[in-house]
Each structure stands twice: as structure tokens, then as C-alpha cells.
Input
Amino acid sequence: MRPPAKSLPPESPPELTNGGILVLDTDSDLRESLERTLKCGGRMVYSAATVEEAISILQRENILVVILEMLPVAELTLDVLTTVVNAPTAPKVLCVSVDASPKLVTACMKRGAESFIQKPYSLTELQDELTKMFLSSELNTHLADPLPGDPDAIPSLLVGASHPVRELRLAIRRLARTNINCLIRGASGTGKDLVAREIHRLSVRRTRPFVKVNCSALPEHLLESELFGYERGAFTGAVSAKPGRFSLANNGTIFLDEIAEMYTNLQAKLLEVIEHKQFTKLGGREATRVDVQIISATNADMESRTKEGTFRSDLYFRLNEACLWVPQLQERKEDIPVLARHFITKYRHFRNGSQPELGQADLAALQDYSWPGNVRELESLVKRWLVFANGNIRDLLSQQPGTLSRPRAQGTPPPEDLDRVPPVALTRDLLLATLEQHQWNRRKTAETLGLSYQTLRRHIAKHGLV
Output
């Protein structure tokens, strides 16, 4: 049983986080002009003419947002957009273009852009978009602002006022006063990464780096070098030494997302970091000391993984010094209207700044839906609704993989097992469109559709998309 939530004061909008901006444009005059203008706002601003320059800057500097000028040949810039979005530091991308056709805007969003504005634009409009991106609940913040005063006075980034969310905020505030390792658990799409950032933002380490690593995104040898770094000559192509994510997170927080997918060989090395606060780079001889708080997250059944031997039980216990469960959207349905309006405000630029209202019938339909993909699915639905200006939100719901809520028949799985039920509305076209949206990244596709990875593989095989 969860303890009753304490009464919390009303919340005001969060402060902007600190971090740099990268301008990626082939036009040197435009780059320099934009760089001078943005520096007046007090942020570090960098510029690049090529994607190679941009990646080099992203590896060296704390870049949170990339401004990308779309070229007349849009397909070429879309490839650049994909490269930048998939960079290890995962910056958010603001696309700017004279062409603001629905086709181009949709293509940019499918490739992972966070926002889009049409040229010519005013300085105020650009600053408004950047402000929204830095405030965005999806922003992977690498460095938090110094936040003075009592952490209890800092407003939350978590949207919603339901009992489960207020309980979660209270638990986060209590945990943030400690320095213990934390395991965040919950279904795909519930916002586990946001909870990790919130813990860091309220902690004594909030002025130090927050570094995120997705443990399922890289093969074993690349993940090891990404986590621990390497010395020059450690392997073919290692022409210079590179610090790993643990070094970058020193004195701050490292967030290990999808920790259950970490390779067993790396689990032993991670355990050494926890127990001895040190590690050795690839090709190195000297141990590197490190002081980090480790926050990890998973939607897997960790108890089963430890019994099967695919995850070390000693590592699990060290990571699980404290555990936070993030509620599914169906457990907090009273938050759906405020979440939907939050996403409409966030993405209103899809309709040239206009902010449409949801009718009572639309809100009722949203609350009657099962949301197997949780908050991420709701955000994706709002995006599609705004892009297709004539789209009926109830029609869009009928194309989603979930179902309308109804009394559960005896013997059917409980809500937490929804992703094991074959989604009745998962057509071949919907599955193919979602795969293409994520460039056939199956893990991201599974998260968007609210499915387990194995269930997604079965549906891919069933529809002949192997």
C-alpha cells in the first residue's frame, strides 16, 4: 500500500535549465547572425556548417538544442536531421524553413525533430520556441541550473494533480535528499526518464551534470566504450582518448535507462563502479575514481531476470537501494485532460500558433481509452491530431493499438499485462507506419505501440514484415 499523499502547494512553471545551443547551417552569414543574437540571451552558442562539425561539437560541449536550417533539397537535410537526433547526446532539434508544408513538417517530426518554425520568423518567436524546448518534459537535460533554496520550493516538471502523481512527487522529494542509488520501474511510456531528471533536479547534485545512457541502444563493445571511455590505441580507430559517460557524470548523476538489457559482462564492471567507485578505461592501466549517483530504469520483471541468471542479483540489490514505481496513465485518468492541453500548448506551432480546444466528447473519448502506450502514446496522438488539422480525435483513437475501457471479464489479464494481449486494432498499415516512423528501430516502435519487444516481433512476423 502506498502512504497517503501529503498536501502540496500549487505549482508554478519550472525554471529554464542551463545548456548550449548549436546552429547547424551551411550559410555562414546566417550562422554568425544567429549566433550573435542568441548569445545575448546568456547561453553558450556554437555553430557548424557540416554534420561532421556538429557531431564533433556535440561530443565536446553540453548542447541541449540544435537549430537546423532545412535546405531546398529537403531529403538531404532530413538525413542530417536523423544523424543529429541519433547522436549519443540526444539533443533536441528545432527545424527552420521557408517551406512549412504539412508534408515537410510531418517528415521532420517523423525523423525526430522536437519543433518546427517557418521563415521568416521574429526573434520573439524563435525565443518562445527555444524556451518551450528547454522546458519540454522530453528534454534530456545534461546539466541542471543551480536552484537556490529549499528543494521543496522548487516546482515540479511532472504534469498532473492526481493522487498517484502527487504521491510520486512526494517520494521523489524524499529520495532527492539522499545520495542512494534508485531503480525506477514502470511500463513503457510512463515517463521514467522524466522522474530521473526530477530526482537530479531536486538533489544536492543539481548543479552538476546529468548524463543519460540507453543500455539497449548499442552493441556490447560500443556500450562499454561509451560508459567507461577508452585510451588512444585501445582498438582500431581509437586515434585519440575519449572520456566515458561515467567520467562526464562525475560529481553528478548518471541515468542508466533500460538497465535490464545491459550485457552480463558489463554488469560486473558496473558493480565494481558501485562498490569501489572506480573503473578502468578500455586500453587503460590506471583506475579512474568517480563519484556519481546512479539512477536506473526498466519496464522488465527484474525478479524473473535475476532468477533466470540474465541479470546479476548482487547488482540488482545495489541498484535497487530505493525503488520508485511510475503509475500507468490508466491509473491517473483524471490527469488526461490537463496532459492533453499541455501537449496541445507544446505543439501548437503545428497549426501556426493557434491553440484548438478539445470538446467534452473528445475528452470523454480520451478518458475512455485504455492507453497501453501511456503518456507517450497520448503525446503522439495529440501531435497527429494537430498535424492533420481536420482529424477527428475519436477517429484517430480507433486507429490506436489499445481499446475503449470496459468492465474486465473474468480471466482476462489485469492492466499491467495489457501489452501481452494481441492489440485488436494493430493493423499491418499501422504497424508498418510506426516502424517507418522510427526508422525500423524495433524497441522504439514497441514503446510507441505499448507492446513488449517479443510481442512486437510476433506481430512483425505475423504481418510478413520480417
Notes: DSSP finds 19 helices and 14 strands in the chain. Residues 426-466 form one domain.
